[in-house]
Amino acid sequence: MTELVLHGYWRSGAAYRVRIALNLKGIAHRHVTHDLRLGEQRAPAYRAIAPHGLIPVIEHEGRTIIESVAILEWLEARWPALPLLPADPGDAATVRGMAALIACDIHPLHNLRVLDALRTDLAATPDQVNGWAGRWISGGFAALEALVAQHGGTYAFGDRPGLADCYLVPQLYSAQRFGVDLTPFPRLVAAGQAAAAVPEIAAAHPSRQADADG
Question: Each residue of 91-104: pLDDT tens digit?
Answer without folding.
Answer: 999 999 999 999 99
